[in-house]
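quick one
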Amino acid sequence: MRDAGLSLPRNDPRQYDDLAGEWWRPDGAFAMLHWLAEARAAMVPPATRPDALLVDLGCGAGLLAPHLVGKGYRHVGVDLTRSALNQAAAHGVTVVNGDATRVPLVDGCADVVAAGELLEHVPDWRAVVAQACRLLRPGGLLVLDTLNDTALCRLVAVRIAERLPTVPRGIHDPRLFVDHRELVAECARHGVDLRVRGVRPAVPGLLRWLLRQVRGAATPPGQTPRIVPTGSPAVLYQGRGVYGG
Ligand SMILES: C[S@@+](CC[C@H](N)C(=O)[O-])C[C@H]1O[C@@H](n2cnc3c(N)ncnc32)[C@H](O)[C@@H]1O
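structure w/ S-adenosylmethionine:
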């Protein structure tokens, strides 16, 4: 894996091309995205109507897809990165190569919009929120997770995390992290009553995972760290809200 931080600016989307082989490796550079995808999918109820659509903004390689199986949605993924979209398509996602701030889909088409680990990568996250809410049909559901604009988050997600062997250096630009109160207010402006809660990997599972990383051992099936609620949204948080129309 090339150390993207050495040769590209922080948060440069071309890092995802360099890291294309990492997406579906459960213990690879994007391991935590697998854990978060499972937790995000747990916020999505089964579809209540035929032809229900879930639009996955910044879908990457489609890590959400296995966790939606049986829920009854057509999964449409929008992303800037073609190398990721090719992999998402191979996992059953209908892919759209585009910018989440200008989504080429019609208003009100989505029963669910997901934005997993996207907002903290977009210079204009408010434009993504506007698009997410525009895409939702009345009663539709927005689910997301992102990193908070706090000193603690910058310490944990950048200074500490980027020293771990599997976390790509330079993948985040902390200047783009998203204050949870501003996000809630922006969603409200667009008709979504967003509730947020802090989340983190459960400590025992995370320690076992880190130990296996040090030993070079693979994670046995079913033993990936679980994402659990935590008392504060100060680092990583999930949001869930219904669009009132
Ligand atoms: C951290 S990854 C998250 C991927 C996926 N949501 C997941 O959780 O596995 C961020 C993704 O956002 C995409 N991305 C960044 N800026 C974007 C934008 N403006 N529009 C669409 N996709 C974007 C990147 O290409 C990358 O695939």
